[in-house]
Amino acid sequence: MAAGEVESGKNLSGLLNALAQDTFHGYPGITEELLRSQLYPEVPPEEFRSFLAKMRGILKSIASADMDFNQLEAFLTAQTKKQGGVTSDQAAVISKFWKSHKTKIRESLMNQSRWNSGLRGLSWRVDGKSQSRHSAQIHTPVAIIELELGKYGQESEFLCLEFDEVKVNQILKTLSEVEESINTLISQPN
Amino acid sequence: MEASSEPRLDAKSEVTNQLVDFQWKLGMAVSSDTCRSLKYPYVAVMLKVADHSGQVKTKCFEMTIPQFQPQLLATSSLLSASNFYRQFKEIAAVIETV
């Protein structure tokens, strides 16, 4: 039996999920044989291989173009019309999958394309420093900030910084400039 | 990462550094080999930090706009709201009262 005939929507949904895990989210250990035996055991390996390749190709095309729903409709309709394409049932499953997983896949694609460290976390504490009676300064609050940074697929690096109040306000001013810049950018027509 | 209402810090690194310089740029990732339509803006930061011995190191990292300030983008999900800007505002508010 052909792969297109045996599968139910649930199998294809599972397959797309596994493909996304493998292709975008970097989940290890997802092999062709694993997928075939779990989801399409009646399909011969050769046939499954080309079916899998087709589905992976479709998913990659959709993700690469970051298709909106109009583009998706048009793309999938074209796929149903061509030789060796997909059935309209399969198209419906693919469409549903993209709509619910688009954001997460996009986020993975963004992370994969970032070769610098990304910001993974930020923690902070404010200490009130007190000096000894020999020092004139008795009250210097200090902020301690820990940045968690990390490159894609690598372990985090922690950077601990100390700021006095003056420095905090300097940074704040800089950050407001960043915000202004962002607002200018997003208010421009694409 | 969530910003909790109470500041908390169990520092993984006991060594604190002084910030010597903070440079930033706003970039736009357009396209890549794995994704032809990336289209996302990001904030790239370059920090110069000095440790106790005075040695200066450079640290670079990037943030997405939602990580910087979620409210700026209507389409932001809160998947990664480290919320860099807002947390600094909180720090400033707290340090003022100490």
From TrEMBL, chain A:
Pfam families: COMM_domain, COMMD1_N
Biological processes annotated in GO: cholesterol homeostasis; copper ion homeostasis; Golgi to plasma membrane transport; low-density lipoprotein particle clearance; negative regulation of hypoxia-inducible factor-1alpha signaling pathway; negative regulation of protein localization to cell surface; negative regulation of sodium ion transmembrane transport; nucleotide-excision repair
Annotated COMM domain residues: 118-186
UniProt GO molecular function: copper ion binding; phosphatidic acid binding; phosphatidylinositol-3,4,5-trisphosphate binding; phosphatidylinositol-3,4-bisphosphate binding; phosphatidylinositol-3,5-bisphosphate binding; phosphatidylinositol-4,5-bisphosphate binding; protein homodimerization activity; sodium channel inhibitor activity
Source taxon at top rank: Eukaryota
A GO cellular component entry from the record: nucleoplasm
Family under the similarity heading: Belongs to the COMM domain-containing protein 1 family.
Protein name: COMM domain-containing protein 1
Species for this entry: Pongo abelii (Sumatran orangutan)
Gene expressing this chain: COMMD1
TrEMBL record, chain B:
Highest rank taxon of the organism: Eukaryota
Domain COMM span(s) in chain numbering: 18-86
InterPro entries registered for this protein in UniProt: COMM, COMMD4/6/7/8
An example Gene Ontology molecular-function term: NF-kappaB binding
Family: Belongs to the COMM domain-containing protein 6 family.
Function of the protein: Scaffold protein in the commander complex that is essential for endosomal recycling of transmembrane cargos; the commander complex is composed of the CCC subcomplex and the retriever subcomplex. May modulate activity of cullin-RING E3 ubiquitin ligase (CRL) complexes. Down-regulates activation of NF-kappa-B. Inhibits TNF-induced NFKB1 activation.
Name of this chain's protein: COMM domain-containing protein 6
Record organism: Pongo abelii
